[in-house]
Design a protein that fits this description.
By secondary structure, the chain is of the alpha+beta class. It has helices spanning 18-26, 41-45, 58-64, 66-71, 78-87, 105-110, 161-164, 168-176; strands at 5-10, 36-39, 73-75, 93-97, 120-135, 141-155, 181-184.
């Protein structure tokens, strides 16, 4: 199966996901495509998101989960995305991109192991706050705090913390979340 990398980019308290999503899209790190999923289902019902990190690629789970089929929506245009980002100001929401843009020159340069697969990018919004608890396979607590927003880069080819820190992608996140925190939690 291989190691699944779970890289969490935790926004400062009170921050929202809309500026981060827009910043990464404007910079070309993320692309709006037919596989973009918006929905409350995985946010509210997948315990793997908040306790142990996901053992499978998040993209596969989000795109194929019964929860997404029940409550999720697929977005194909910017107007639809903007409407969903506005909803994220009021209610818990997940926006899941299936991958980083593999054609982006900074992605190719900073993450030379990445081939365009196995790196889902999920943005989680909890306007009223949420207790995010991340534990290792050995039950070591890596993070346990109330947060309002975070991004989760997940998959066999997701960037690990040592190459994410200092990358152009990290700088794009820091433009909108200057006090962000990065937590890596990999599972074999």
């Amino acid at each position: 199966m291989g190691t699944i990398i779970n890289l969490y980019v935790v926004a400062p308290r009170g921050a929202r996901i809309a500026p981060a999503v827009r910043s990464l899209m404007d910079a070309g790190f993320l692309e709006l495509c037919g596989h973009l999923v918006i929905g409350p289902g995985p946010v509210l019902e997948l315990p793997a998101v908040t306790a142990p990190p996901l053992r499978e690629s998040a993209g596969k789970l989000y795109l194929n989960s019964p929860q997404t089929a029940r409550g999720g929506r697929r977005i194909t245009d910017v107007g639809g995305l903007d409407a969903e980002l506005a909803r994220a100001e009021q209610e818990p929401l997940l926006i899941s991109f299936p991958q980083l843009n593999p054609r982006h020159p900074d992605v190719r340069r900073d993450f030379d192991h990445y081939d365009g697969r196995e790196c889902a990018v999920g943005f989680f919004a909890f306007p009223r706050g949420y207790r995010l608890r991340l534990v290792t396979e050995d039950d070591e607590v890596l993070f346990d705090e109330d947060v309002h927003a975070w991004a989760h880069l997940n998959g066999k080819c997701a960037p690990w913390e040592t190459i994410f820190v200092g990358s152009a992608l990290e700088r794009a996140f820091r433009q909108v979340w200057p006090e962000l925190r990065v937590i890596e939690n990999d599972w074999v």
